[in-house]
């Protein structure tokens, strides 16, 4: 599926199969949504949360952006899309868990590590550089441990991205409050595209383990 015309063909198959067979489910979803989990994932076309977690429509509230990053809490003027989605999921839908899912071969994390788009003009990488600048301190930690930007360095950068997002999530008052009283749990994970394996972050041990 590479073109909009292919997407329309897919839609027609959906209407005649999935929607028809699951009509009752869709009728129920028309009344509202009540997902228990919010997933913060990367925009990368290879990493589709619903496919990876074998989830049905209505089961996950998903937000996707470059490198699966959660920004820190701030109330400065601007367009805070991820923060708005987080606020809606946590305070309005009252999800019980937030999952940050990084992934292998992440272009956003690679851009942060290599500083590929530093000083780029709009249309040439400027917005990418601004967004992944959230990983500047993490990049410094990674480069301090690796004399060469080898495969391990890129993987470690992806792991750091998950940790940064979790730390930033906890700067939101309504997230911190709910996590403290047990109404909300935060999870970090990393999906390896190469082998189709999911790794879960053990924050106590500061390591990722196979699910």
Automatic annotation (TrEMBL):
Instruction: Name the catalysed reactions.
Output: hydrogencarbonate + H(+) = CO2 + H2O
Q: What is its EC number?
A: 4.2.1.1
Q: Superkingdom of the source?
A: Bacteria
Q: Which cofactor does it need?
A: Zn(2+)
Q: Name one Pfam family in it.
A: Pro_CA
Q: Which UniProt keywords apply?
A: Lyase, Metal-binding, Zinc
Task: Explain the purpose of this protein.
Answer: Reversible hydration of carbon dioxide.
Q: Which family does it belong to?
A: Belongs to the beta-class carbonic anhydrase family.
Q: What is this protein called?
A: Carbonic anhydrase
Q: Please report the organism this UniProt entry assigns to the protein.
A: Sphingomonas brevis
């Amino acid at each position: 599926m590479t073109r909009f015309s292919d997407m329309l063909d897919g839609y027609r198959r959906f209407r005649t199969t999935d929607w028809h067979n699951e009509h009752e489910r869709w009728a129920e979803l028309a009344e509202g949504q009540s997902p228990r989990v919010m997933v913060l994932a990367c925009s990368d076309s290879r990493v589709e949360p619903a496919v990876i977690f074998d989830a049905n429509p209505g089961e996950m509230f998903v937000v996707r952006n470059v490198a699966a990053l959660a920004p820190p809490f701030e109330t400065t003027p601007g367009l805070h899309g991820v923060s708005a989605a987080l606020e809606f999921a946590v305070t309005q839908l009252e999800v019980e868990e937030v999952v940050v899912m990084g992934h292998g071969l992440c272009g956003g994390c690679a851009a942060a590590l290599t500083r590929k788009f530093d000083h780029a003009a709009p249309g040439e990488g400027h917005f990418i550089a601004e967004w992944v600048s959230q990983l500047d301190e993490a990049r410094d930690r990674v480069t301090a441990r690796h004399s060469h930007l080898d495969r391990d360095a890129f993987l470690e950068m992806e792991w750091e991205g998950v940790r940064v997002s979790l730390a930033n999530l906890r700067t939101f008052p309504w997230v911190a409050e709910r996590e403290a009283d047990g109404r909300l749990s935060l999870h970090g994970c990393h999906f390896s595209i190469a082998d189709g394996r999911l790794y879960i972050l053990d924050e106590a041990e500061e390591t990722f383990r196979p699910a």
